[in-house]
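Why does residue order matter? Because the sequence determines the fold. Keep that principle in mind as you read this record.
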Amino acid sequence: MMKFVKSLTACALASAVSLSVLAETTTAPQAKAPEVSSVELAYKKEFAFLEAQKRDLQTRLTRLLTESNKEFDAEKASLTQLEQQVLSSNQKVELKKNLLLDAERVVQANQDNQEVFKSTFLQADASLEPYGQSIEGDKTFQDLKDGEKVTALFTRGVTLLNELSSVSTQAGDFHLLDGTKVSGEVVRFGNVARYGISQDQAGALAPAGEGLFKLWSFKNEVVGEETARALALGEQPATLDVFVIENINAAVQEQKEKTIWDVLKSGGVIGYVIVAFGIAALLMVVARALFLRKASQSSQEVLEAVRPAIEAGNIPEAMEASREFDGATSRVVRATVRNLDRDREHIEDIVSESILHESEHLDRFGTTILVLAAVSPLMGLLGTVTGMIATFDVITEFGTGDPKMLSGGISEALVTTELGLIVAIPAVLLGNLLSGWAERIKNDMELGALHLINVFKDKDDRAKEDEAA
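Structure:
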């Protein structure tokens, strides 16, 4: 439509231009020739015709423009209406989507609630089944709605709790301390403890496995006899001796106190070897401490006995005084006194030689004690390795289902390490202390011998000075 209007406008403009040109050509000769010719009339007619066509075209153009504007306005209004309809449709679609999402959420929530109800009912059935209150085969319960089922479960739970939280007496069987099975009265103290009463014995009951019970004892004496008899008579016991039951299907064993022998036994052969090392090291420490103590005491006594004779210059008397003692110090002193008449350097060499000779006696067991102290933790480490190997062998054969089967290897691994450290730590400490004590004795012997040499040499020097004077 717009293209047609544009072409019509172009035609009208072309006609207008032609008319203007024709008007110019017709008016120009009139000035020259006032007479009207046939050509001029033809031109005038043509001009009038073109003017009429121009007006007609302009009228048509105006009408077409008006119609096109009306059509444009109508199309624009229609377009606007369509856009509004599209927006309205989009809003309705979004609303429907939101409603659909809400519906899906409600459905998902209902499904989740159904799962929660199912799991709740399963857990409730598992909890109530041991007490004969199973809901799985209860048709009346299954016909109820979910909310009514929850109410019914709470009612049953409250009733069961009231029953389990009271003291009741009923006939039953249990085992005595010697393992004999007897029939008597079983007092249920709620759901946490039970007491058995028979003609022979009465007391607190403990699980014996597979739903059976036995009298519980401590140091071979029945626990809770007075409590059981008081509860059976409906009286309030002065003290409530109770054994709390966690699982009636798992047998409870009386915990025995571990002795030193049990610990050593759990360590295996390597544990015995480490203990033997410890005993040997202890005996050596005691023996070495005894003769070091004797050597330490005799050192001072020998020096005090020999010194007066040395100061008097009586070497034979000093030798006799040193022979009254027996030990390393007396032997070093005798070697010193025997060679006092020689020069100082020679005497000092003899003293050093005597002390080196006595060092073997003073250092007796010292090296062995330190060797045992070093080997003991290594033996403990060996026991750890063998224990872990035994544990892994059990795991390979039987798996990890029963921890008791693994306890033997783990006990050996830990006990041997403990025994090795128990032996090594005091052995290292005492061995080094005794070695230091032996070194001090050697130093005391050397200082004592040098003191005797100095005393004798000073007296000899003073005698020579007196003779020279």
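The mean pLDDT is 77.
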